[in-house]
Design goal:
The chain is 26% helix and 25% strand. By secondary structure, the chain is α/β, with parallel strands linked by helices.
Length: 402
């Protein structure tokens, strides 16, 4: 089928900034879809105008209903950078679409600041949790963020200031590429309560207050990085557990009996495009998991308040499963193994003799490896230090055949 859907990136300079061919496609379109700001740029058009609907899937249905007509979608900047083009590409075949990018906010901001894009963390705060910023906080780290609206810079400034990063350079770039372009260069602490123009991009150069340090993304965060009630996979065991779970790009995890959520949160921090579900029966602990996820830059963690296996109904099968805190139900492991995707990994940590019996049976049935971790920490005893052993942990790790 001939391409009928054209997604055109457009800047704040409107039609004047488009290449001649792109402008011709807009002028000859039968249908033009986009946000209110973009549709205002073509207010004189005789084409049918389709403003974005909420939820966005309704807009996709309206566009699909016009298949075969000359449909143009106007999107900000590069449509494949957190844009409409990326969303539409999931719903329409490649040969039915044409995408014509325009310099996006990230490119324009980097050009104004003389920052190398490859050295920056690129995130969107448009309809996404603000706590995602926390994942990237490190001394000297540069972050470019797409804003939700004019209040986003203030919210970012408050988050940084309250977290000990108030000295960070905060640059707000309004109406990039347009006639009203303006750059405000200050610090998070000095931003105060001001509001920016709704069309803005936030640039950050992270600077910590004395005594404040960013958290590494490698597994094994300090135990005190988490709020917990004692139900916590300790740092040394957690690092070994994440190594056994072996997260790869795009994979998903079930953390069954999640406690304070430490393993699921570290899974999400370990790389890009990872997803995780924390299953926890205790409502107070489920709320604790949510607080930890926000504080540690993993606000996309999905939390299911319920007991396995009943709580697993309706969840897509994962690439990895972690069972912590002991396996009390001998019928749970077969259910988890069945739901695990081929090639996936199952890791179970147990501390009781009864739990060991269950994982030994699992290892005999499904294969895999058994490890035992005996960790001691030096702690003060009067004027000296002594070794305090942690509870010994037995770990079973197995990979499901493809």
């Amino acid at each position: 089928m001939t391409a009928w859907l054209t997604v055109i990136g457009i800047g704040d300079d409107g039609l004047d900034g488009l290449a001649p061919a792109a402008r011709t496609l807009v002028e000859t379109a039968e249908v033009i879809a986009g946000g209110a700001r973009h549709l205002a740029m073509v207010a004189g058009s005789t084409a049918e105008l389709l403003p974005w609907q909420q939820p966005f899937v309704n807009s996709i249905a309206k566009i699909a209903a016009r298949r075969g007509r000359r449909v143009v979608v106007l999107a900000s900047g590069d449509p494949m950078w957190f844009g409409a083009g990326a969303a539409l590409a999931h719903h329409f075949p490649r040969d039915e679409m044409i995408v014509l990018p325009h310099p996006g906010a990230f490119s324009l901001a980097a050009a104004r600041l003389r920052w190398a894009i490859a050295d920056c963390a690129l995130i969107s705060l448009h309809a996404r949790p603000l706590d995602a910023v926390r994942l990237h906080l490190a001394g000297g780290r540069r972050i470019l963020a797409l804003s939700e609206d004019g209040g986003t810079p203030r919210a970012v400034a408050h988050l940084l200031t309250e977290s000990g990063w108030g000295q960070s350079r905060l640059i707000v770039l309004e109406h990039l590429g347009g006639h009203a372009e303006r750059v405000i260069d200050t610090t998070a602490r000095e931003w105060g309560e001001r509001t920016a123009e709704d069309l803005n991009t936030v640039a950050l150069e992270c600077r910590a207050a004395p005594g404040v340090r960013g958290l590494p993304r490698i597994a094994g965060l300090p135990d005190d990085a988490f709020e917990h009630d004692g139900q916590l996979t300790k740092r040394e065991i957690r690092a070994a557990t994440l190594a056994a779970l072996a997260p790869l790009w795009g994979e998903s995890l079930w953390d069954v009996g999640a406690g304070c959520g430490s393993v699921a949160i570290e899974w999400l921090r370990a790389g890009e495009n990872l997803t995780a579900v924390a299953i926890e029966r205790d409502p107070a602990r489920a709320a604790m998991i949510a607080r930890n996820a926000m504080a540690l830059g993993a606000p996309d963690l999905r939390i299911v308040n319920g007991a396995a296996p009943q709580a697993l109904v309706g969840l897509a099968g994962p690439d990895a499963i972690f069972v912590g805190g002991g396996v009390a139900d001998s019928e749970l492991l077969p259910v988890l193994w069945e739901r695990l995707r081929p090639g996936g990994r199952l890791v179970a940590n147990v501390i009781s003799v009864e739990g060991e019996r269950i994982v030994l049976d699992g290892q005999a049935r499904y294969g895999g490896s058994l490890s035992r971790f005996a960790v001691s920490r030096a702690e003060p005893l009067g004027a000296r230090h002594v070794w305090r052993p942690l509870i010994t942990v037995t770990q079973w790790a197995a990979a499901k055949p493809r």
